[in-house]
Fold this protein.
Amino acid sequence: MKAFIFPGQGAQYPGMGKELYDTSDTARTMFETANDILGFRITDLMFSGSTEDLKQTRVTQPSIFLHSVILATVLGDRFNPDMVAGHSLGEFSALVAAKAMSFENGIILVSKRAMAMQKACEMVPSTMAAVIGLEDESVEKACAEINDVVVAANYNCPGQIVISGSIKGIDQAIEKLTGLGAKRALKLPVGGAFHSPLMEPAKVELEAAIDQTGISEPVCPVYQNVTALPVKSPEKIKKNLKAQLTAPVKWTQTVKNMLADGANTFVEVGPGSVLQGLIRKVDQNAETMSAQI
């Protein structure tokens, strides 16, 4: 069975999507539609912008979404998923690619999500840190013992968790986890505590936007971050999307569930190949590849 997977924030790179734009009329039309909806030429930043330009949340999230969804569309009949999943932002790409949401609604929602997250980041100084080489339970327990806000945010693969919280909370957690024997515990170059309670203001803002967005039954099950379980019900999809910003991304659990449900080939659709590496750490025998135009 074939699983198509969609990357999240951090997968962006200068020049992303330009080959799609140059070689496909369908892609060109979709990119220009996105420029119109967003009210600025995001294609200029994607194709010619610097690494710094692409780090702005209002640019990063729509850029990765566009690259992923347009590539899935250009694949045509080769986009034939038995199941889909996306990492954080990638879940929105997966939902559009699986026909649960229109392309236009997807862009609007991703743009609103990016803006809401940016605002929440500016309200409280906060950050995230990668923790390598400890059991999930050890990281969770250490975070729970800290008085400031700090939680497990991304379960990326066995032995790799990203934690999220206030600057003070993350600093204390890094010290504690290093003492517990973590191979590495280091801050990430992000401007906020994604997938933590500090995203509550963004969640409230995004909930209203999700309520206004039409969601249909997808063409295949979507394994959502919040539960790591396959979902087809539009009501459940909406509920899980609303919870996503303040809940952890259960990627390890998602991959394990997809494998248990019969996935034997994982095709990464979008920029980079980060998810393929994570999947191989969950199961070294899993077949992984990047989608090619």
User: Anything to note?
Assistant: The chain has a mean pLDDT of 96.
